[in-house]
Hints:
Layout: H1 2-61, H2 81-85, H3 93-99, H4 103-122, H5 126-144, H6 166-179, H7 189-193, H8 196-199
Amino acid sequence: MAVHDHPHRHTGFRFPSLRRTGTAPAATDTAATTATSAYVFAGLRLLTGFVFLWAFFDKTFGFGYATPAGRGWTDGGSTTEGFLGSVAVGPMESTFHAWAGAAWADWLFMLGLLGIGLALTAGVALRLAAAAGTVMMALMWIAEWPPAKHLSDGSASMSTNPFVDYHLIYAVVLIALAAVGAGATWGLGKAWSRLPFVGRRPWLL
Length: 205
């Protein structure tokens, strides 16, 4: 009996070690998934930052894309007159027309593009960038007013969705990047969070 019992005691002794070995791949997979997610969000952050920075530089210097050459901000052109002046639908149509081409509107819009773009690219102040970007995207959403089927003159609005458009998507992306702290990977987020004045003001993270 003693001889036959010995293998059972030996197997029982090894069983816990087999279970511990079985949990190692799960922990490794979790760590790998977390790292992959961090890289994905970092890449999304950089691409989104480039969208804002490109818009700023194109409108500033008129590269010939959205802003024709010779009509950039540095050439004396307005960065809001074309878009806001062409608003043809929505509850703020007359308000946007009044704002179109105003110096304060041009400055706020351009500073917003630059600030959000730099924050995303560097990976700092993502909460502030998300707040500012959400306000900007909300105003642009209202300017285009996707719920409308027809413009003020009765023509078709050509809206493809009554609620979701790219402005809403950008706003959600900005909020998500701030929520997950996407500046820590491929960015200066960790160093930024250790600064004393940032630590005392969580809204600067």
